[in-house]
């Protein structure tokens, strides 16, 4: 995409937003008819259409003049929930106070979000969207990528709400419904209180700055009942890690000191009574621990396949019962991360918040993730892998897990349903491919 065409698209979007927000639906019809009379009324000798032009123009000029002369002010306070979820409508309240000496009617409340227009570098680096959009010329000019990125960066949609009556210097609660469209941080910029002119063509606008943010969690899919295989493993992290999960490091008995015992296990009171070194003998920690391996390695910043993979990982994080086990989320971003949830450590909400902020890893090899998984393999009872492709590096990781006799479930998100992953099934390993736009149907096959 050329810089000139990019700036033309930015300007066009600005004009479109101004027209659709300042003009009512009736006003847009009148504006369209006005432009039509300009096109059809050029020949005044053979057409009388030109006579309609001054009438429509007068209506619009009058409506705009009246709206611009209206003066009012307001204050507002937005009360947002802790977070939302992609595709799940949420409602929230806005307390509006009109700064006026008398009651007024006919207002509309609109949300103002951060500018969603993508940067030129983002448009150039973004791949073509998998969803067909427009014609071949759109692919050539980069229009498909522009509209896909614009739709993604808008984040959410909030319908304008009619406010029937606002009283002077009194707070009125207005309920708005927001539909999140993509995960991440949704940034609010302000609130606008609009009021149409008496003709109902053009709206007066008053906008106040009210910056806030709302974390949008990934989309969640329904999963069938899943019994993850795996046996309890010895955990060397001690009681702080076990934290009432499985068999914790509980006191068993007292015995005499043996060479090699840790000084931390010395029972000082018994030593003082007997005059001999006495140590506490404790029960080792064993419990079930699974790894949720998320593949974040791709060359683009955004893709539908990457978003589908995060949604699948989030669905497993919600469905896996962690009251009696632990779940490690492992992925690579700026560095290699491992976040653990389970009773006494952290909760599912925390893992979903992490997944809401995960970005693609574009400058590291998949081998970085392989090393992290293998280093923790002795602690794991089983693994769930969510992969973006099925190349040699991914297959190598699965083979190593097979060699360690670790039960493994691999889900490969793919674009083409015919490109199924190579068969690597055995008694401990299952590989399933999921088409990016048919995730729910594929998950029900588990």
TrEMBL record:
Residues 254-356 form the DUF58 domain. Keywords: Membrane, Transmembrane, Transmembrane helix. Pfam families: DUF58. The chain crosses the membrane at residues 23-40, 52-74. PANTHER family: SLR1927 PROTEIN, SLR1927 PROTEIN-RELATED. This is DUF58 domain-containing protein.
């Amino acid at each position: 995409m050329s810089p000139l065409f990019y700036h033309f698209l930015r300007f066009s979007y600005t004009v479109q937003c101004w027209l659709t927000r300042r003009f009512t639906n009736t006003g847009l019809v009148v504006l369209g008819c006005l432009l039509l009379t300009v096109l059809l009324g050029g020949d005044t000798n053979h057409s009388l259409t030109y006579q309609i032009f001054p009438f429509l123009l007068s209506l619009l000029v009058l409506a705009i003049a009246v709206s611009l002369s209206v003066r009012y002010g307001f204050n507002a306070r937005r009360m947002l929930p802790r977070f939302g979820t992609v595709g799940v409508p949420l409602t929230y309240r806005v307390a509006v106070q009109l700064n006026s000496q008398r009651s007024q009617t006919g207002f509309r409340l609109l949300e103002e979000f951060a500018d969603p227009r993508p940067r030129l570098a983002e448009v150039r680096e973004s791949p073509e969207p998998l969803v067909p959009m427009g014609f071949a010329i759109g692919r050539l000019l980069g229009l498909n990528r522009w509209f896909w990125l614009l739709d993604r960066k808008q984040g959410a949609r909030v319908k304008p709400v009619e406010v029937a009556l606002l009283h002077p210097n009194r707070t009125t609660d207005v309920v708005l419904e927001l539909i999140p469209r993509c995960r991440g941080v949704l940034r609010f910029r302000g609130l606008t209180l609009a009021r149409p002119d008496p003709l109902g063509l053009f709206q007066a606008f008053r906008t106040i700055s009210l910056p806030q943010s709302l974390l949008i969690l990934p989309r969640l899919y329904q999963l069938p009942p899943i019994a993850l295989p795996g046996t309890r493993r010895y955990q060397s992290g001690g009681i702080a890690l076990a934290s009432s999960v499985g068999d914790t490091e509980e006191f068993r008995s007292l015995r005499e000191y043996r060479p090699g015992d840790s000084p931390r296990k010395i029972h000082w009171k018994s030593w003082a009574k007997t005059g001999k070194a006495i140590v506490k003998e404790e029960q080792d920690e064993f419990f079930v621990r699974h790894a949720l391996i998320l593949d974040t390695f791709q060359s683009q910043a955004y893709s539908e396949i990457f978003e589908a993979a995060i949604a699948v990982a989030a669905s497993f994080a919600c469905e896996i019962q962690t009251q009696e086990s632990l779940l490690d989320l492992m992925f690579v971003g700026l560095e290699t991360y491992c976040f653990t949830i389970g009773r006494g450590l952290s909760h599912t909400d925390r893992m979903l918040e992490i997944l809401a902020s995960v970005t693609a890893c574009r400058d590291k090899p998949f081998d970085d993730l392989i090393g992290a998984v293998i280093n923790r393999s002795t602690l794991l009872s089983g693994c769930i892998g969510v992969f973006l492709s099925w190349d040699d590096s991914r297959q190598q990781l699965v083979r190593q897990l097979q060699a360690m006799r670790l039960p493994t479930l691999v889900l490969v998100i793919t674009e083409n349903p015919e490109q199924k992953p190579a068969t690597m099934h055995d008694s401990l390993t299952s590989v399933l491919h999921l088409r990016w736009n048919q995730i729910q149907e594929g998950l029900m096959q588990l």
